């Protein structure tokens, strides 16, 4: 846990349990939010905002991985499958016949609903969550490596088979659904540019971060952490581990669905290639570099890796070489972090914070 | 009936290559407990080394395979020393993800050095016209892979059962603490396991790559060893071999029979789906050790 600044003490349980225990913390976070909501979108360029959106998407997707690996201890290497489910559900239900005139008549009842985008987000979360529970079922019997393999199976079955071969055919134009600009609206607010997507991203990321921090303190959150630390001991103590594991899969699937349905605002088309296996691995790398089990670590990891990508991109000489440098940089980053900074960036941040909190009386 | 026989035979032939790679995987897991997800990339490295020796340097094919084995052994020792050894005793997630990082690194390096174009052995190593045995049609590539896999499997099993180092590996796999106290060097055992895994994967990659040409997606085929080892039970050498054969046969049978009903590459995902279902009923695979856990 955090340490309190020198000279500050809790005086009531209410204060000890509050979201922001000290006024300074509240002040700091509110300033951060004001900067993010009111300053950044109007001063940064569109390119910078598109990078910010990418970071936000990575955070949203990696939060689900964090919930499964960091909170519940269920290793997952197939998270991109559920993100893909979210993106496809949201895209299919939002688009109307006018957007995709070539839709085959048979699937018309599905594809011409023209559902409101916020509703389609909810539906995407629900379906992605249920799909995730389906592949979480083996976790009732196996753990460790078995779980890794079933999540890998989820990845290849969902993305490379069901979506690439069947769902993509619904659109009737081969491999992708195009998303015409202006087809995603929230009420009267059309999400057309990077700035609109940025606001939506910020709202979602803030909400998900708060939810994740608070989930840790609820009954399911404590059950998840008990399962992570020692599942047999948790079961002996009366935690229904199958139920809570499946709940974790459902929650992670919902976060994945949210990430996917957000990400279509920044895409011109949805294609299975956006959700390949290396994305799943990439998100696990995000939480490793940020710190396993730490909510703020997810954010640090996402920022680190996406900025690394931007850096690699700017150095890349030719387009095709960039692909390899990206792989090499990611592989090296993961290996070096595991060898030399196994607790991740959030631990380093914690140390820096404590240094200043306890200064000048650091007794530790 | 002839179709069934044909599918079975070619399944066993491909499966023997999977069995070889799976054996390498199992040796690592058995001796050091590392769950290695970089197996697909290990196949790529070995295959590309052999191909460069053969195509660019004009080395005869058997010598090129030998060169790839030597290169694999060196790389295996290096990887174990630099990456895996500092992580002995760390949580499962750490060790798994370090192999994932390794797989990204190797894939990037392979792409950087050899590019993405599909390359073939030139001039072809195996004749193109198939061999006919009665009603069966067998491609020489598959037969070559089968023979090479059998030779290497026999060699590795002999190494594991009959040599001093192999016995040290068995002892470490059985009880690490007891082995250490009897003077077995665990470091040496881990190093040998990684060298063998690289060598086995490399030879597997050479033959998988000479079926349809070699490109990055051969690494994806190398991933099929994971269902094979899970099916066999992670720490059983005969299980890995049987698992590889079963996965090869299953892949061919689904490709032959189910592809007509459910088109679109069911061949590639069926082994994974099958494995997920098997895990529900036999969590420790067919011949794996049942672990009794205590708090």
How would you describe this protein?
The complex is a heterodimer of chains A (364) and B (295). By secondary structure, chain A is mostly helical. Chain A has helices at residues 13-17, 23-43, 46-72, 79-94, 108-111, 117-136, 145-170, 194-215, 219-229, 231-236, 241-263, 277-290, 295-315, 319-340, 344-358, and strands spanning 177-178, 185-186, 189-190, 269-270. Chain A has a two-stranded antiparallel ribbon. The relative contact order of chain A is 0.16. The mean pLDDT of chain A is 86. Chain B has 295 residues and is an all-alpha fold. Chain B has a single domain, classed as ABC transporter involved in vitamin B12 uptake, BtuC. Helix content of chain B is 72%, strand content 2%. Chain B has twelve helices and two strands. Chain B has helices spanning 2-32, 39-55, 61-84, 92-114, 140-162, 164-174, 176-181, 186-212, 218-222, 225-232, 237-257, 266-281, and strands at 131-133, 136-138. Chain B has a two-stranded antiparallel sheet with strand order 1-2. In chain B, a hairpin with a 2-residue loop joins strand 1 and strand 2. In chain B, helix 6 (164-174) packs across helix 8 (186-212). The longest helix of chain B has 31 residues, at 2-32. The chains are: A mainly alpha (364), B mainly alpha (295).
As for the CATH topology of chain B, it is ABC transporter involved in vitamin B12 uptake, BtuC
The largest sheet of chain A is: 2 strands, antiparallel
Number of strands of chain A: 4
Which range does the strand content of chain A fall in? under 5%
């Amino acid at each position: 846990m955090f340490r309190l600044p020198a000279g500050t003490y809790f005086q009531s349980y209410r204060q000890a349990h509050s979201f922001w225990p000290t006024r300074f913390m509240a002040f700091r976070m509110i300033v951060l939010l004001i900067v993010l909501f009111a300053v950044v979108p109007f001063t940064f360029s569109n390119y910078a905002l598109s990078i910010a959106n990418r970071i936000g998407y990575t955070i949203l997707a990696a939060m689900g991985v964090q919930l499964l690996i960091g909170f519940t201890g269920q290793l997952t290497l197939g998270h991109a499958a559920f993100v893909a489910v979210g993106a496809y559900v949201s895209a299919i239900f939002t688009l109307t016949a006018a957007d995709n005139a070539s839709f085959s008549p048979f699937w018309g009842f599905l594809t011409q609903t023209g559902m409101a985008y916020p509703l389609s987000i909810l539906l995407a979360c629900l379906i992605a969550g249920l799909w995730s529970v389906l592949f979480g079922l083996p976790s009732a019997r196996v753990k460790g490596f078995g779980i890794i393999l079933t999540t890998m199976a989820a990845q290849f079955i969902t993305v490379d088979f069901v979506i690439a071969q069947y769902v993509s055919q619904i659109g009737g134009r081969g491999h992708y659904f195009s998303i015409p600009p202006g087809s995603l609206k929230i009420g009267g607010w059309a999400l057309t540019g990077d700035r609109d997507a940025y606001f939506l991203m910020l709202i979602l990321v803030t909400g998900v971060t708060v939810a994740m921090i608070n989930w840790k303190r609820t009954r399911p959150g404590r059950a998840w952490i008990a399962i992570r630390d020692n599942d047999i001991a948790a079961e002996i103590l009366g935690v229904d581990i199958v139920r809570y594991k499946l709940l974790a899969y459902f929650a992670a699937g919902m976060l994945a669905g949210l990430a996917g349905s957000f990400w279509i605002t920044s895409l011109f088309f949805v294609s299975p290639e956006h959700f390949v296996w290396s994305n799943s691995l990439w998100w696990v790398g995000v939480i490793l570099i940020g710190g396993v089990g730490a909510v703020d670590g997810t954010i640090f990891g996402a920022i680190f890796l996406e900025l690394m990508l931007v850096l690699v991109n700017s150095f890349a000489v030719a387009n095709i070489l960039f692909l390899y440098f990206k792989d090499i940089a990611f592989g090296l980053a993961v290996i070096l972090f595991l060898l030399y900074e196994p607790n991740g960036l959030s631990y380093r941040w914690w140390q820096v914070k404590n240094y200043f909190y306890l200064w000048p009386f650091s007794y530790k | 009936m002839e179709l069934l026989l044909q599918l079975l035979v070619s399944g066993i032939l491909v499966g023997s290559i999977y069995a070889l790679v799976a054996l390498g995987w199992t040796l690592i897991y058995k001796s050091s407990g590392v769950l290695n997800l970089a197996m697909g990339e290990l196949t790529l490295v070995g295959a590309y080394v052999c191909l460069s020796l053969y195509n660019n340097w004009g080395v005869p094919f058997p010598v090129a395979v030998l060169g790839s084995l030597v290169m694999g052994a060196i790389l295996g020792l290096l990887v174990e020393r630099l990456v895996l050894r500092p992580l002995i005793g760390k949580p499962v997630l750490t060790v798994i993800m370090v192999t994932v990082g390794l797989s990204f690194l190797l894939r990037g390096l392979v792409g950087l050095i050899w590019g993405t174009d599909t390359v073939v052995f030139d001039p072809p190593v195996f004749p193109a016209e198939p061999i006919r045995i009665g009603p069966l049609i067998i491609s020489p590539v598959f037969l070559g892979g089968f023979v090479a896999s059998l030779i290497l499997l026999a060699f590795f099993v002999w190494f594991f059962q009959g040599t001093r180092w192999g016995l040290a590996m068995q002892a470490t796999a059985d009880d690490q603490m007891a082995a250490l106290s009897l003077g077995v060097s665990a470091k040496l055992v881990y190093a040998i396991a990684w060298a063998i895994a690289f060598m086995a994967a490399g030879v597997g990659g050479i033959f998988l790559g000479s079926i349809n040409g070699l490109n990055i997606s051969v690494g994806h085929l190398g991933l099929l060893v994971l269902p094979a080892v899970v099916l066999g039970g992670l720490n059983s050498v005969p299980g890995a071999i049987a698992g590889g054969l079963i996965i090869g046969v299953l892949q061919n049978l689904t490709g032959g029979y189910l592809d007509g009903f459910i088109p679109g590459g069911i061949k590639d995902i069926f082994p994974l789906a099958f494995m997920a279902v098997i895990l529900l009923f036999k969590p420790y695979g067919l011949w794996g050790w049942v672990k009794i856990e205590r708090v």
